[in-house]
Amino acid sequence: MEVNEANKSETQEICEGLAKIKTSGRVFYNPVQEFNRDLSIIALNVFAKEYTNSESIWEAGNKCDDGITILEALSATGLRSIRYAKEVKGVKEIVANDISIKAVEDIKRNISDNSVEHLVVPSHDDATMLMYKWRKERRFDAIDLDPYGCPSIFLDSAVQAVKEGGLLLITATDMAVLAGNSPETCYSKYGAISLRIKACHEMALRILLQCIESHANRYGRYIVPLLSLSADFYIRVFVRVYTSAKKCKQTLSKLSTVYHCTGCGSYVLRPLGVIKLNEKNQQVKYGLPTKLPSDTCEHCNHPYHVGGPIWGAHLHSPEFIEKLLNETSEKFATFKRIQGVLSVMSEELLDAPLYYTLEQLSGTLHVETPSMVSVRSAILNAGYQVSYTHMNKTSIKTNAPAKLIWDIMKAWEAQHPVSKKRLSENNPGTNILAKKSEFECSFEYHPEAQSKSKKLGYLRFQQNPLPNWGPGTRATA
Fold first, then answer.
1. What is a single cellular component term in the Gene Ontology annotation (predicted)?
2. I want to staple 161 with a disulfide (CB 3.0 to 4.6 A). Which of 131, 292, 323, 462 is the partner?
C-alpha cells in the first residue's frame, strides 16, 4: 500500500532506499510505510537465501535465473517492487500489478527511470484474478499484499498462487474493525469476533492469522508464521505456506476461543480442539475440549465476553528473527527502529498468547502503579516467565496464571493501601481484594527483570513517526 496528501494533481519525486520514483499524487503513497518496506526487503533477502538454499545468490539488481519470483499484487506507484529489484538478492522476476491504468502508467515510467526492466514486469489486472491465473502450473515464490483496508478478499487466491513453502507478506490497516470497535464487521470479513481489550493489537494479528489459515486449509494447505508485526496504524504478517492434509487437521488445536472478563480484564483461552497423545508422546487422535470457564470470572465475579476464534499458536519464528537481525544494517533509514522492534520480538514468550498492561492491573484495583521491574521480578521470583511485547511498552506477557498476577497486585496493594472510598460494592477491584491469596509474592529484584534490549538501549517502542500520520486516504486514480 503506497496517498501523499499534498499536490495530488502534480507530479512528485520520491526517493526511498535505492529507488527514485515519480507519482501523479493521485496514486497511493504513504511515507510512514518506509519501515514496512525496509523490513520486507530484509525478510525477502533472508527468505531468498533459505528458499534457493544458496549462500552465494546473485547480487541485488542482477537477474538470477534460479532466483525467486515475487508478486506485488497492489503496486500503486511501483515503489515497493522497484526497491525489491534493487535491494533484494536472488530475484528472478517481480510482477508489479495494479487495477488502475493511471497507476500502471506510473509503474511503467518508474521501472524505466530506475533501469529495472530486466527484473520488474508491469501488469494491469484485477489482483484476485491475476493470482487465480497463476494458481496452477505457475506460482509465485512470494506474494506481497498491502491493501488499503482489509486483505481478506485477496486471501483465497493468494494461498493458491504461492508455491510450496512460499512466502506471503500480508498487511491489514482496518484496525478499528480488528481491535474490537466493530465485532460484527470483523466476523463478516475475517470469520472471527474481535474484542475491545488491552491486548487488541495482538488479538488483531491472531485474527488475521486464523483467517489466512482458514483459507489455506480449504486447499489442503497450512501456514507457518515467521513474523507477526503490529506497527503504527497497521498489522503485517510474514507466513510460509505448505501442503499437508495431516497438518490441516491439527489446525483445530491451533485455534482458540477467547473468554475476556468485562470487569478485571482477565482472559482465558480455550482451544477449539485437542490432540490426544499416547505414552510415547505420539499422536493418537483428535478430540474436542470438555472444560469451559464458568459464567463469571473467578477473580472478580463479572461476566465474560466471548471472542475469536484466534490463532493460538506461535506468532514468530525465533530462528527467522535472528536471521533478520543479522541481515539488517544501517543502510536502511529505519535501521534503529527495525533493530529495536526485532530485538523485543526475539524476547517475546511464544507460548503465552495475549498480555496484560501495567495500567490495566493497577487501574482495576485503583492502586498506585508499581514499577515494571517490581512486577516482572515478582513473576520471575514465583518461578514463571515474563516478557514485553513489541506492541505495548507497558505490556506483561507471561505464562503465569491470572491468579498469580492478581495475588502480586494484592501484595502490592498491601504495601500501598488503596482508599476504601475508591472501592464500591461489587467493583472488580473490591471483589479481587476480598479473595484470599494463594501465592507468596516477593518483589525482590530479579536479575532477569530488565530485558536485554532495554539494557542495550535499543529503540524499542516508536513514537508517532510524522505529524498527521495514518493510513491516508484511498487513491483516486
1. nucleus
2. 131
